[in-house]
Amino acid sequence: DAGVIQSPRHEVTEMGQEVTLRCKPISGHNSLFWYRQTMMRGLELLIYFNNNVPIDDSGMPEDRFSAKMPNASFSTLKIQPSEPRDSAVYFCASSLERGLGSQETQYFGPGTRLLVL
Amino acid sequence: GQSLEQPSEVTAVEGAIVQINCTYQTSGFYGLSWYQQHDGGAPTFLSYNGLDGLEETGRFSSFLSRSDSYGYLLLQELQMKDSASYFCAAFFVFGPGTRLSVLP
Predict the structure, then answer these.
(1) Which of A9, A62, A63, A69 maximizes the CB count within 10 A of its CB?
(2) Per-residue pLDDT, B26
(3) Residue A14: pLDDT over 90
(4) Burial class of residue A103, CB neighbours in 10 A (0-12, 13-18, 19+)
(5) Are strands B18-25 and B3-5 parallel, antiparallel or unpaired?
(6) Distance, CA of B5 to CA of B73 (rounded, Å)
(7) Closest chain A residue to the Cα of B98, Cα to Cα
(8) Across chain B, what does the average pLDDT equal?
(9) Is the pLDDT assigned to residue A104 strictly greater than 90?
(10) What is the DSSP letter of B65?
């Protein structure tokens, strides 16, 4: 299995530009998580999908952030417009939940390192 | 809401045993997971406690006490490669992480 795939691995952009991060979860997994990691705030959940449906998006910072999961094998996280404070590592993780919130092992992708200038 | 607390740093020498504690305040708590993250890498799963007691996986063990809202990760026979950050997590809420430095 290829594991969770994220692209791009690195992104450098200028303030105000649109950024789109992509994630392909492990085949057969039914839950997908987007996290953001910074030194100041640690690893924080942005949004959690189960069976392609957003279950918890309370971590999405503001209207500039949006996430979609059009099918079981693909998700995007979009930032528009981007700001320097969005600079962070963004991780996507997937798991196979046997019941909603059953807390199965999460498998993380390699992350996207975003720098907004 | 949920919050988890861990020590920020722990240092130990090769071959030693180290314990990383985690206390939590949560609603709807199902269990405690532990993840390891090396610098520049992604978190990887180590252990999960859904019930009170000790879970052992090789050199790593994890413990949970629901009545005390407390858990720990025990690393035995420390190796240099164990130098990393360790996170406790309650579902998708992660603690701040404990940076473990293993000295020769």
Answers:
(1) A69
(2) 79
(3) yes
(4) buried
(5) antiparallel
(6) 13
(7) A42
(8) 94
(9) no
(10) E
Out of B35, B41, B97, closest to residue A42 by CB: B97
pLDDT per position as a tens digit, B54-104: 999 899 999 999 999 999 999 999 999 999 999 999 989 999 999 999 999
Q: Give the long-range contacts of residues B71-75, CB within 8 A, separation 24 or more.
A: B71/B21, B71/B22, B71/B23, B71/B24, B71/B32, B72/B19, B72/B20, B72/B21, B72/B22, B73/B19, B73/B20, B73/B22, B73/B34, B73/B46, B73/B47, B74/B17, B74/B18, B74/B19, B74/B20, B75/B17, B75/B18, B75/B19, B75/B20, B75/B100
pLDDT of residue A101 exceeding 80: no
Does B7 contact chain A (CB < 8 Å)? no
Nearest chain B residue to A48 by CA distance is B92
Question: pLDDT band for position B29 (50/70/90)?
Answer: confident
- How many Å apart are CA B56 and CA B51, to the nearest integer? 13
CA B31 to chain centre: 13
Q: Which two tokens stand for residue B14?
A: 């090769």
Across the interface, whether the CB atoms of B42 and A108 are under 8 A apart is answered: yes
CA distance A27 to A50: 14
Span B18-22, average pLDDT: 98
How high is the pLDDT of residue A61?
85
